[in-house]
Amino acid sequence: MVYFVDSGMVSLRVVAGGSLLETAIVGYRGAVGISSVFGTHVPNHQSVVLFPGSALSITSEDLRRVMVERPLIRANLASYAQALVVHGSQSALCGVRHGLEQRLACWLCLACDAVDNQIFSVTHDYLSTVLGLPRAGVTRMLIRFEKQGLIRKMRGLVHVDNRKRLAQRACCCYSIIEGAYAAAHQLARMEREVQISS
User: Fold this and answer.
1) d(CA 197, CA 126)
2) What is the rounded CA–CA span in Å between residue 140 and residue 131?
3) Helices (DSSP H) in 39-99: which residue ranges?
4) Given 44, 85, 87, 142, which residue has the most CB atoms within 10 angstroms?
5) Can you tell me the distance from the alpha carbon of 156 to that of 123, in angstroms, rounded to the nearest whole number?
6) Distance CA 171, CA 95 (A)
7) Neighbouring C-beta atoms of residue 142, cutoff 10 Å
């Protein structure tokens, strides 16, 4: 099945040897299970709903048929799948190259993008697990971000108060990932406009 997310957020993960690594987060403009349509499904991948929401679903077989009948849909989904690959590979690089502050700021900015909101539910334990960072370090950094006026922590919630400054704290991975999705959405818009005008 492929799920087109209307609201909420889904964590895409690789699980192996008792460890997990979040490779991407998918929100309201994304799709979960798209790799199965392009024949690249990996059995040790998981999709876990982080924030409940709604999604439209279609079987992989039906979506493949639609993609044959409508090449524009295939092109748009291929662009999105490429952006998802960029997200996953950049997340892997980020995990070995960048520090706690940059990685946490990057994740918070990506979460804002995914839910199209400045407020979302997330725990320190969750961030520690998916980012592979010590929980105490995550807590200290969230407190620092709060003192700097970037976020506000509430019980089980994070409110991003200054998105622009938070993005400046993020590593270059955020702009690369955000740029890949923006390019995919721009291509989809341009293709729709061409189709409408012809």
Assistant:
1) 47
2) 15
3) 60-69, 71-97
4) 87
5) 6
6) 11
7) 19
145 pLDDT exceeds 80? yes
Residue with tokens 């492929």: 2
Nearest to 176 by CA among 93, 58, 71: 93
Query: Which helix (H) or strand (E) covers residue 103, if one does?
Result: helix 100-115
Matching residue, tokens 């622009």: 164
- CB within 8 A of 52, min separation 6: which ones? 8
pLDDT confidence of residue 195: 56
Measured CA to CA in angstroms, residue 66 lies from 12, 71, 72 at distances of 25, 8, 10
| pLDDT tier for residue 45 given thresholds of 50, 70 and 90 | confident
How do the domains of the chain map onto residue ranges?
2-197
CATH architecture of 2-197: Orthogonal Bundle (1.10)
Collapsing DSSP to helix, strand or coil, 153 comes out as: strand
Place of tokens 């400046």: 168
CA–CA separation, 26 and 13 (whole Å) = 11
